[in-house]
From TrEMBL:
Membrane topology (UniProt): Multi-pass membrane protein
Protein name: Calcineurin-like phosphoesterase domain-containing protein
GO CC terms, sorted: endoplasmic reticulum; membrane
PANTHER family reported in the protein's UniProt record: METALLO PHOSPHOESTERASE RELATED (PTHR13315), METALLOPHOSPHOESTERASE, ISOFORM E (PTHR13315:SF4)
Pfam families linked: Metallophos
Species name: Quercus rubra (Northern red oak)
GO molecular function: hydrolase activity
Calcineurin-like phosphoesterase domain residues: 94-303
Major subcellular location class: membrane
Keywords of this entry: Membrane, Transmembrane, Transmembrane helix
Transmembrane annotation, as ranges: 491-510
Gene Ontology BP terms: GPI anchor biosynthetic process
């Protein structure tokens, strides 16, 4: 393959790889891999004048973006390494949101917590900076294109911390509520009630004598009030921390990492909860008994998990949604599509039919980078093999397949004559030549042989050495010239490929980043 053709082919291969990894891969969920669950139902939907179904309200469920900050990787704040890690993590989520999720045209967006990584430990300035990034990623700022979509939030442990932190830094909760609203509340979507609770306070020690400051009491009072309401619609319980399950409980086929068992750590001085993987068993059973949900949605685990809880009212399914960020330890980031019925079901004995869900997976960013590096490695190897090791256009080597022969003329002067190797040897009797070693003397020089034999032998030996030195030097220079030519051609090919694809890569990087 000629150099020009090879360069064009490699440019096209690399450009296609960039376009897929930076753009086309994010179109897959909305085009082929995922759809609203109510589309799979057998009933004929009611359509509005625009052609959209009015039987169901479309809800997108996201969790654990956990924006990276100074607490994430142990890197210095504002360091280049941290800035690069933040940029690529934020860029993935922004692309995922606008290219994979928004095309589904959701009616409601629901976040299940952990919007920041070190939320409770950030200064007000740092927290505001992370908040601005969060709004930019999900189009929630003043320039956002989708601010007209209702958005609901559930607090996570990386947003407000656990009980051991609540009474030391009450400003953390106040800061959260000023921006995201109440931590315990309910709302209705279609004909389904959603109950959002602050799971970080459920297992807090209740402090008698200060009920107005008792966060655990506030949460449980809210739950009791909900339980006393007349339940007209099916309920969905929203909690950042999953409910209790026994160790080694299977999480179903969608989980990509090992199951995480219950782990609880407590503060040394107060013995209050400093971390927990799941809500305690007693609190979980109490929630199920009071709220009577038909479905539980949770996050926190960073990986997908589907379990069933036993209650007095029958089995209740809990679906833990995986993180939307590829930097949070899950190779398969995900989101959920939830269809909430917009009409009262005639069969009240099966309220779970009012809600249907579909788990959707985002592009595997680590695999995209690995594939990109693999493509680049193969292209580089092809360039090197074609140019450096002679696989490409072959240069003409003037010293290849030839040898130099010493010839004396009639005057006794010696000349070097280049001859091809393996050349047919002429008949000496017919040509009248006399051969001596590598030197050939013509008949016209024979009269000088006897008188100049000694001088001729000296000239012959000296000429042999000189000619060998000249041939070695000339061959070495020729090979060096060939290597330099191939290196220059390789560099030129790489420069052309980079000149075509680097601008394309930069354009794709900032196409989704700039509002």
């Amino acid at each position: 393959m000629k150099q020009r053709e090879l360069t064009v082919v490699l440019c096209i291969i690399w450009a296609v790889s960039l376009l897929y990894g930076e753009m086309f891969a994010y179109w897959v969920p909305s085009l082929w891999a995922c759809s609203w669950p109510h589309h799979h139902l057998n009933s004929k939907p009611t359509m509005d004048e625009v052609g959209y179904s009015t039987d169901y309200v479309k809800v997108v469920v996201l969790t654990d973006p956990q924006l990276m900050d100074k607490t994430s990787l142990g890197l210095a704040p504002k360091s280049l390494a941290l800035e690069i890690a933040q940029f690529y993590a934020d860029l993935f989520m922004r692309r995922a949101f606008f290219s994979s999720i928004v095309p589904f045209k959701p009616d409601v967006i629901l976040f299940l917590g952990d919007y920041f990584d070190g939320g409770p430990y950030l200064s007000d300035e740092e927290w505001q900076e992370s908040l601005s990034r969060f709004k930019h990623i999900f189009g929630l700022n003043a320039q956002g294109r989708y601010k007209n979509i209702p958005v609901y939030y559930v607090p996570g442990n990386h947003d407000i911390g656990y009980a051991s932190l609540h009474y030391q830094r009450p400003e953390v909760i106040k800061r959260y509520e000023n921006e995201f609203g109440m931590r315990n509340y309910q709302f209705t979507v279609g004909k389904v009630d959603f109950i959002a609770i602050d799971a970080q306070t459920l297992d807090d020690k209740q402090r008698s004598g200060r009920p107005q400051e008792d966060l655990a009491s506030l949460t449980w009072n809210f739950v009791k009030n909900v339980s006393m309401d007349v339940q007209l619609n099916p309920r969905v319980l929203l909690t950042h921390i999953p409910l209790y399950r026994q160790d080694w409980t299977s999480c179903g086929p969608h989980r990509g990492s090992p199951v995480i068992n219950q782990r609880v750590s407590r503060a040394v001085d107060s013995q209050e909860v400093a971390y927990q993987n799941y809500v305690f068993e007693e609190s979980s059973n109490r929630l199920l008994e009071l709220i009577k949900p038909v479905l539980i949605l949770s996050g926190h685990d960073h990986d997908q998990c589907t379990v069933s809880h036993n209650s007095k009212f029958g089995p209740i399914k809990e679906q833990t949604v995986g993180t939307i960020s590829w930097q949070m330890g899950n190779l398969y980031p995900s989101f959920m599509l939830l269809s909430a019925s917009n009409f009262t079901l005639p069969n009240a004995s099966h309220p779970e039919e009012a809600i249907s869900t579909h788990l959707c997976f985002l592009p595997m960013q680590t695999h995209i980078y690995i594939c990109g590096l693999s493509v680049w490695n193969h292209c580089s190897n092809l360039i090197v093999s074609c140019n450096i090791f002679g696989g490409g256009t072959k240069e003409k080597n003037e010293d290849e397949n030839c040898e130099y022969e010493m010839i004396w003329d009639a005057e006794g002067s010696m000349h070097l004559v280049k001859k091809a190797l393996n050349a047919p040897i002429a008949n000496l009797s017919e040509r009248g030549l006399v051969e001596r070693g590598n030197a050939v003397m013509r008949p016209t020089a024979k009269k000088h042989i006897s008188e100049d034999r000694e001088a001729s032998m000296n000239v012959d030996l000296g000429a042999d050495v000189d000619s060998m030195l000249k041939m070695t030097t000339r061959t070495s220079k020729s090979k060096t010239k060939i290597v330099i030519q191939r290196l220059v051609r390789t560099f030129r090919m790489l420069t052309i490929i980079a000149a075509v694809n680097l601008p394309l890569y930069m354009m794709l990087l900032f196409k989704d980043w700039i509002d």
